[in-house]
Amino acid sequence: MKKIFVITLCLVGYQSFAVEGLQHQSLRWGLKNSGQTIGIDLNPLQTYRMLGVAGQDIDISTLPKKVNPKKIKVAILDTGIDYSHPELSSLIYQNAPKCAAFNTYRKCIQDGTDETQCRTDALQSPANVYPADCLGWSILDKGLAPTPSNIIGSPDFADTVGHGTHVAGIIASVTNDIEIIPVQVIGDAPNQPIKPYSVDLSPSENVRNGYSNAGNLSERIARGIIYAMNSGAQVINLSLGWPEDQDSDVMKDAISEAERRGIIIVAAAGNDSTSALLRPCQYKGVICVAAHRPDGALASFSNFGYGVDIAAPGTEILSTIPMHIRSKRMPGFIGYDYLSGTSQATPFVTGAVAEMLSRGVLPKDIYPRLILGARAIGQETNVIEGPANTAGRVVNSKSAYVKNILSGLLDIKNAMTVSEQTLILPADKDAQSIIWDRKSLDLNFTFKLKNFWKASKDQIKIEIKPTQADSIYPGVVSLEGSDIKSWGSLEEKTLKVNLRIRDQKQAYLSRMPSELAYLVTVKINGKVHRQFEVNAEVIVSVSKTMQDPEISRIATISRPQNMSFSLVDEVYDNRQAARDYLVVGPDMRNKKSVNLAMNKFMNGAYQMTAIQNLKFDGAFDLAVLQQKIRLDIDQDGRSEYIVRFLEYPDQDGLQSRRGEYIDHFYIFDENMNLKKYFKYNDYHVLMPPKPQWMKVGNELRPAWVGKGQEVRKVWSPLDLLGQTEPGQVMQTPMDIRFYYLDKDFALNQVANVGDGRIVDIIQPDIQSVQQGLVSVLVAKNLGTEIKPSYSNNFYVGQVSNGQVAIDRSFTALNINRNLIDTYKDNTLNLGSSSSETRGTMWYGIEAHQSQRVTMLDLGERKVTDKVMSSQRAIFDTALAVHSGFQSGRRAGVFLVTNSELEYHDMLSNQVATRSLDRYSFYGSDVFIQLQFPITVVDSKYPGEKLPAVFRTEGSRLSRGHKFSVPVMSQNGLEQKIVVPAKLRLKAEKGCTALDAPVYLGKDSGYAMDYYCGDQILRVLLNY
User: Fold this and answer.
1) 482 catalytic residue (yes or no)
2) How many CA atoms lie within 13 A of 830 on its CB side?
3) Is 204 a catalytic residue?
4) Chain-centre distance for alpha carbon 660
5) Which of 85, 163, 292, 664 is catalytic?
6) From 343, 869, 958, 964, the catalytic residue
7) Which among 120, 129, 128 is positioned nearest to 148, based on CA atoms?
8) 634 flagged as catalytic
9) If we measure between CA atoms, which residue out of 64, 532, 85 comes closest to residue 309?
10) CA pair distance 221, 254, nearest whole angstrom
11) How does pLDDT run across 22-80, given as a tens digit for each residue?
């Protein structure tokens, strides 16, 4: 299970060396790098060796001996610490006056007394004081009530995970002149944090009006920082992080207060190979740490960008683990193991900060010394593939793009010896927001610079230009406040950048990206002092007043209370541009009924039908709205509305959307008069989330291919006399079958075709749906009944009225793969057609770290088949094929890797990439599912569409809707995925995003709708 904190196992390795203690310097290249070979196990199938480069370490071994060093208190906010570890026990902070109470508490627990009683008896203390915190504190509640003085947690911070102990060992390897304050903020269940009710910095919950388990990680860590401050910490290590949507005011206040008190906070940049920074790394005043390899290059997994301050060793780091945890990479050895990540790089910097403080460096001088003393990032070297006992082979592991950070690699000796000087750097790390109305060609944003060290009386000049010279990036018109004659120490100055759109004369047509980067050059007396990037995000604020030719307003009535709008997203008639909204809500007085109406698009406006209270033969509070369809089901030339709910009989099923469910269908005429309500609850087979529609007699009925039992009736002897009676369904073996509902909405099935079996449904076009024709994949096994083969010949068939016929215009699919044991999805249409979809693709793992896609285009009668891997396959894995797209001349898919979003054009073999902007604690499956496929009209080539994926506002992964669109040049020189500024849409107060995209047909493509009270604002997706 993915942990919410940044424990990265992106690169983990094992070296079969005997370990007797951390004094074995040869195993710790971060302290002393002599150019030794470092073994890396990416996974059980991939073993690499990386050649170190001598001197690419933290350069601490040559520092002069300390004279009268100070003891520095370092708080480690993590999973706890094994304070009995022989390498750490003498360094653990002790609060002597509390140790007697702690021993009493511990003895009480060991004697088997109820822990709640032990807390009551032993943890009595004055208010706002942590009782019995002899060695440290755990902020975790562990299911227990607060202390008698209403302080959350306990003095028991045992490390059951090992991460915190590993971090502590790295700090201890850098310096011994420390007292480690263990603060446990993460346990075995980090998704169950405590939420405070105010931003008061008191440790007591009395000021928060109560105690609750609901909340997020940052709020629990804020409590840890409060404890660290109360314990006298001078440095705080945070090898963890969280995204913006998990932020909290109490956390910001705690960080600000720590900074005001002169406490230095060091945090991990994150392990997702992205420039999208975690919190608290993005906070002002926090030292943000990336990870580097033994060759001095940034680690493949490390986050990067100019918001990252410095890098430290983070690949294959040997350190302490709890004595009771088995070493995974060093079997047979106790108390030590290797881990990789920015979690491991961070304590190197924390240790360096503590070492410098112990030598008398003032806290205010720490940051500028680290930055000015940093070495340049090294060049990536090739790696050697193969086990350690073989010669192996050299593999090119170089990244496809350059990673930059604000300074370079940690070098303690340089940091100690650098002379005091002016240091001008960004004061803030977050991207600046530019709110754009899509009307103005002029944009502007402000950013702050800070002099972090010596005051300057010299002439300072600030220059700025787009990082990329492409004309789609707005040009700089002026930079206000750029000429500076004096700059005081720790003084901040604000500069204003005025920009102008250059690529179009009409602003709304601009193809500029949302994410802008500008290179800032600081010159002192005409000489370059520092260079770095500042970033800005262009966001279109959607409001009732905005207007341009690609935005329309549609009058509507206000949503009734307790009811919501839900797009009728499956439209199979010839009025594609007329999209309706189902209005649905629970009956607050009766769980066995539902309130429904239709907000119909008529004559350029929305008109809502009367609200109906309809029977729901089940429990509506256990149901979810599954399908909203407009289709001529009875073939009379007028469309019906079909509304489908799935009822999960148990509460857990509703929450997870797993397990058995009951189908509830409502069929209305075009005026929302109920024609039919029925339940489908046949135990033979579940109906899938989106069945097709097959002609049965003169009407259409749901049809699907799924795994289930055979539909067979047992006939009564009376049948011999011609008198039938209802039969019973027999139990038969589970198999893949074609099912459908007959004219009476009862389950039936289609017989197989000779010696071929129907194994899948191929996505049809609108015309086929209207006619009730279902295209199917038919497999003919190449073996015999006695000795079946793994291989099949595949054919396309057409099913109607329960009968299947092979499509003779489509010869056998010449595909050397098994399409049965793969994932399947529809492909979106990139051409000019009324159909939203184009065909079907099958995909799955072909070989280690690669995915294979087979794409079928029914309209063109062709198959495209390709194997694809990540562009950085040495250190990355192709996790999934996310969505497919095709037209008569194009075919491609988005490939999601551990850290990148890649678009692979399957015909030209071009690949466009961008960072996935992922966060470690979002599981891979969840993160992939939050990217929704869509197409965008290509303004450069009328009649064509561009493939895209987007995130909704509700996903909380970005500010507003965020579309990612690949841009492929004709000459192959420019291949990238951009986030168009004109489509970076965020609802303003008074408007709400209706997150389902609206398909308007071949000419208009998709649009996004925003509900703004008395109107719906419709924004066409053109780029």
Assistant:
1) no
2) 21
3) no
4) 29
5) 163
6) 343
7) 120
8) no
9) 532
10) 9
11) 444 567 899 999 888 888 766 556 678 888 899 999 999 888 888 889 999 999 999 89
